[in-house]
Design goal:
about 240 residues, alpha+beta, 60s Ribosomal Protein L30, Chain: A, about 35% helix, single chain
């Protein structure tokens, strides 16, 4: 009777071990990336979504601009300090657009415009007749206004950025009360925005400035009572060197 050959099964454990090592390396990389700053996380995410493109768009714009300067990168004395800053700001702008679901609205009718500027992000909320942000002649939010404030507060509070609020009301505003004019309305709306952001999530220490205006900016762009002159601009300003 012939001698039975010894069967070898020594190769299978090597494959299993290699899979285990690969899985452990992947876990280590995920844990390491998760421990990084929020800006690096956003930049890494943007790269893997489209690894063949540079993190910086050719035009720097979030959306195509119009004659009023909406949705474009504004040049200034200095650009954001790093590519990571730019990728972070673009991702933040895109997150806001998705939260508010205004991508499908025509450009000249958008109730909100988000622009990457030289020191952060500028969010302009228009009090349009078709989709008002405030109730007529008052500083009370509409249901749309409440939704916007809630989403802005939630997102703003996640990042270490300073916040500035600028309210604009047309000089042509008149009320039934002689002592209540455009300056009073503009001031009330600026403070309503401040209170709303703080109420829903924003740390009040992050608010650096609250300002009211009545003159349209830029002057002569449209009639005094046009939608563009009824707006609130919220600036999210990068804190250089802060974590």
């Amino acid at each position: 009777m012939g001698k039975k050959k010894h069967e070898h099964h020594g190769g299978a454990w090597k494959v299993a071990y290699a899979d285990f090592v690969t899985a452990m390396m992947a876990l280590f990389m995920v844990l390491w990336i998760s421990a990084q700053d929020q800006e690096i996380l956003l930049s890494t995410s943007r790269y893997f979504q489209n690894p063949f493109n540079t993190p910086m768009d050719r035009t720097y714009g979030v959306m195509a601009g119009d004659k009023d300067g909406g949705g474009s990168f504004q040049t200034g004395d200095r650009p954001p300090s790093t590519v990571v800053d730019m990728a972070f700001l673009h991702q933040l702008a895109n997150d806001l657009y998705r939260l508010l679901d205004v991508q499908s609205v025509q450009e000249d009718q958008k109730p909100i415009d988000i622009s990457v500027v030289n020191d952060g992000l500028r969010i302009t909320v228009f009090n349009r007749k078709a989709q008002p942000f405030f109730r007529t002649g008052s500083a009370d939010f509409t249901r749309w206004g409440e939704l916007v404030v809630q989403n802005l507060a939630w997102l703003m509070d996640r990042y270490n950025m300073a916040v500035a609020i600028d309210s604009y009301t047309a000089d042509s505003f008149r009320s039934d009360t002689p002592s209540y004019g455009p300056w009073e309305l503009s001031s009330d709306r600026a403070n309503a925005m401040r209170r709303g952001l703080v109420l829903y999530a924003l740390d009040p220490e992050k608010i650096d400035r609250v300002t009211a205006y009545t003159s349209p900016t830029p002057p002569g762009v449209s009639p005094e009572d046009s939608d563009i002159n009824q707006r609130v601009e919220i600036s999210m300003i990068m804190r250089r060197g802060a974590k």
